[in-house]
Amino acid sequence: MNPGNIAQTAQAIRTNVSKVIVGKEDIVDQLIIAILTSGHVLLEDVPGTGKTLLAKAVARSIDGEFKRIQFTPDLLPSDLTGIHFYNQKLAEFEFRPGPLFANIVLADEINRATPRTQSSLLESMEERQVSIDGTTHQLGRPFLVIATQNPVEQQGTFPLPEAQLDRFLFKLKMGYPTTEEGIAIMKRFMADSPLEQLAPVVGTAEIEDAKRHYTGVKATDELLGYMLAIVEATRKHPDAVLGASPRSSQALLRACQARAAIQGRDHVLPDDVKAMAVPVLAHRISLRSVQRMRADAAEHVVAGILSTVPVPADAPLVGRA
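Structure for MoxR family ATPase, as requested:
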């Protein structure tokens, strides 16, 4: 599959999701990128902004299985992974898979679960498998976790530590719709939910094929140096206690390759780096306590770095083959 075919697959998903979701094209593209790169997404926003609807629409578009898990303090790791139980009729133990055995899993309010349960989910995200009673079970292909958390209500929560935040490819925010989008949403859902009529436009096999081929997108040494300079700048920033990890530079490269592929290009542009830097890097930076009081402080730090790190002089221009 070449980048042109990957772009067609992405456009089919994008168009199909737009039948349900009004606007949010950038968020949809970033979810497609996360699927292609085998990444996961932390979606931070207040309730009612369409997070569950978006996840369901993407799952239906790729003909994937969707599961939603409501995270609570009493949720156990086995509630996610599944259990072995004794079947009295068959007189033997059977495995009952948990909700992680799906293609797209919505981990709703992940910060309400205990660190033990959070760690169980994050281990599954990294390994794409679960081990229960000495037996390893493979998870779905593709496998995308969309974890949500409410940025306003913090009472009774267990914030994700930096080591676990680093496991997410993106941290995104849905945001409120504009007035025009709000009217369009009300009209669209006036009679019935369009999600009920949404049909798949690609299959999971096509997604897996695209995942194998997007890495063929090229990035010059100069652009690799540009990415690394941005990552290193987060470690030297005066407001940062902890900068972006080496894993983040790999994540930034993969995200840029996938973004180029879904746009039909076989090479990475500086614009890809600028578009992906904030959602890939901001949540991987730990700021000093004073700066943490501002919700979007990390995003401003990365945006400031982008404005100061020079773009390579011989970087390919938009549209150049």
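Residues 246-262 form the longest helix (17 residues).
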